[in-house]
Design brief:
Helices cover 6% and strands 32% of the residues. The chain contains one helix and six strands; from the N terminus they run ββαββββ.
């Protein structure tokens, strides 16, 4: 098995989440993404604010499973940004063990692939 410590970042668009940002200041955050970058504004949820986000917002199935805390600190390593034009960026740090069929005979001089399944897809 292999240990992994990384960050999963997902981005999707949901026009139901669009909001009028005319009275808001632009958000200066690299993950705040709008189709028109001028005056891009985002609502940022993190920590305990994410506790029941799946009750009012559609999210990809891999995100929902990952939002379930494994420990008390898990929510502090997740962040959700909703832009004024409905773009959503979610990211979470993960620490997982992955098992795979590797042949160590020729390592490190060979090429092998470690697949990680996330929901219905894989990376």
């Amino acid at each position: 098995s292999f240990g992994g410590d990384g960050e999963l970042r997902l981005r999707w668009s949901d026009e139901r989440l669009c909001f009028n940002s005319s009275l808001w200041l632009p958000t200066k955050d690299k993950d705040c993404y709008c189709s028109e970058p001028k005056d891009c504004t985002c609502v940022i949820l993190r920590g305990e604010d994410l506790g029941n986000v799946t009750s009012w917002m559609w999210m990809p199935s891999s995100t929902v499973k990952s939002l379930q805390p494994h420990s008390d600190t898990d929510h502090h390593e997740q962040r959700l940004l909703i832009s004024s034009d409905g773009n959503v960026t979610w990211h979470s740090r993960f620490v997982e063990d992955f098992t795979t069929q590797f042949n160590e005979t020729d390592m490190p001089f060979d090429k092998q692939t470690l697949s990680i399944r996330i929901g219905k897809g894989s990376i």
